[in-house]
Amino acid sequence: MRLMKLKFWLAVCGLAMGVATGVNATEVAGVKLDDTLQLANTELKLNGAGIRYKAIFKVYVAGLYLKEKKTTVQDVLNADGPRRVTLVMMRDLSSEDFSRGFMQGIQKNTDKGDKAKLTSQFLRFGELFASVPELKKGDVMTNDWIPGVGTVVALNGKKMGDPYPDILFYNALLRIWLGESPVDSGLKKAMLGASENRSAFR
């Protein structure tokens, strides 16, 4: 009898833990993103998340994390403290294609003055993916802004290269998704807190 009661309470506890876990994560097309995380001793909140589409294909899920919720591009760019963009790959992609998409997004959304200031950092960033021949479905890339350190890029938890010190560089990255010519206009809306982009939350 005691054994049956013990099994019952273990089952109840397990169910409760499962419910609690679900509350703390947002699911986008089968990809779970934490609603909050710790970065540089600061709690960040998921501002918004959605899918990067290329034609009809899902390329990756992207989530934007900030200290406080923001709904405009300028407020995001001006936000203080650490920030993070998390990318979770939804298909295999060569690093060449992936980096080309990044660099095109930067070129389309960065003004000439900032480009001139950041030339060396852009060149180094363009070479970053040479050591990774391919990104696989399920790979996780994080792009962090850490005050006093700079932009830190990591793949599956492993830091890729040295930090990029200028906040202008991080904001140039953000404009890939949030600029005037974003890589995906639906994703831009989703990262700014809209409920979905296309079938993002199916």
- CATH architecture classification name: 3-Layer(bba) Sandwich
Distance between the termini: 43 Å
The total number of structural domains is: 1
Q: By helix and strand content, what is the structural category?
A: alpha+beta
Keywords: Isomerase, Signal
Signal peptide: 1-25
Protein name: Chalcone isomerase family protein
Pfam families: Chalcone_3
In short:
The protein has 202 residues and is an alpha+beta fold.
Structure characterization notes:
By secondary structure, the chain is of the alpha+beta class. It has one domain (25-191): Chalcone isomerase (3-Layer(bba) Sandwich). It has 7 helices and 11 strands. It has a 7-stranded antiparallel β-sheet. Strands 1-2 form a two-stranded antiparallel sheet. Strands 7-8 form a two-stranded antiparallel ribbon. α3 (95-109) crosses α6 (167-178). The longest helix has 22 residues, at 2-23. The termini are far apart. The model is unreliable at 2-22 and 198-202 (pLDDT under 50).
